[in-house]
Specification:
Layout (H helix, E strand, L loop, with lengths): L8 H15 L6 H8 L3 H4 L6 H14 L10 H18 L6 H4 L5 H16 L4 H24 L7 H17 L8
Length: 183
């Protein structure tokens, strides 16, 4: 009879996020995660195939930390809620968050978050080519703002000003999208 597993993929990803948040993304290594979990690095390979898989899993953990908006909301309200969720994830994981600027969504769970944005944009009346471009541009603008905020770029401004700026960014982004179809 085999030993009971001491770790699982979820614990590994949480620990990797903790290492990144405390020491930066460069500190995330298989050895650092294993040491924190008090296992050998080889024990991780039952759950992540290599460092790339670990990083992809971290992207998944960050993206799946975004609350899923209620499906009954209008498309623009769902996108606004997702943007707020991205901002909350950046606040919760400031050291790990920059990973979303450098690695695309690769796991099925991470891709489902992007698909949720695609659905909202299709409901806005965009065709598939326009949906993909709009998602890239919207997410880049939102990720850029929240990464700047998490990194302290706006530290000379009060929180109320930063919140107003984020709300204004969302208004600007919605202006470039069509009005929702009436029905």
């Amino acid at each position: 009879m085999g030993r009971t597993a001491q770790i699982d993929r979820s614990a590994i990803l949480r620990t990797a996020l903790d290492v990144a948040d405390e020491h930066g993304l460069a500190a995330v290594t298989m050895n650092a995660v294993a040491k924190r979990l008090e296992v050998t690095a080889m024990a991780l390979y039952r759950h992540v195939t290599d460092k790339a898989d670990l990083l992809d899993g971290m992207v998944e953990a960050l993206l799946t930390g975004i609350p899923t908006p209620e499906p009954g909301l209008a498309w623009n309200d769902r996108l606004t809620a997702m943007a707020g969720g991205i901002r909350a994830v950046a606040t919760a994981h400031p050291g790990a968050f920059p990973l979303l600027l450098t690695r695309p969504a690769a796991t099925s769970a991470a891709l489902e978050i992007r698909e949720s944005a695609y659905r909202a944009l299709r409901e806005a009346g965009l065709g598939q080519d326009a949906v993909e471009r709009a998602e890239r541009l919207l997410s880049t603008a939102i990720l850029g703002f929240v990464a700047s905020e998490a990194a302290g770029r706006f530290r000379n401004h009060g929180q109320a000003t930063i919140d107003e700026d984020f709300a204004e960014l969302l208004r600007w982004l919605q202006r470039v999208l069509p009005d929702p179809p009436t029905g």
